[in-house]
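Just curious. Protein, please.
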Amino acid sequence: MADTVEKEKKEEKAVVDISAFFNRKNEEDGAWFEPNFNGTPLGIEFKVIGSNSNAAAKETADYKREMAQIEGIKDEVKKNDREMDAIARYAAALVRDVRAKGNVAAQLNGKPLTYTKEAVYEIMLNSSVIARAVLNFSFADGNFINKNQL
């Protein structure tokens, strides 16, 4: 009898539900992301859509077209300004919301930070570190897996 129980235990297999790794809907809905710089959290979270979402596909196409046009600019200063603007607009377009995290009273230019496209663009334009962090988060597919199911 003991041998039968032990044999049954050995035959039990781990269950893996592959749907736990589905990320498409989460990429469309977006996921909250807090940039972290050298181990220091920003205290502000951005809700970022995934690069595979339909909305991001349009923004990516627009960004690529703009970058192709920028390549023709001969003046390096003007070219850099246009590139930084394009990156900021691209990153801002992937953000769907912003919020303070925990005990932080987030402000932008001395006023409470609220989500507007203009406010997010201003953040992205003036902080290339945040803009690039948002883009990196959006392109990392694993950020959009439903971690509650794993």
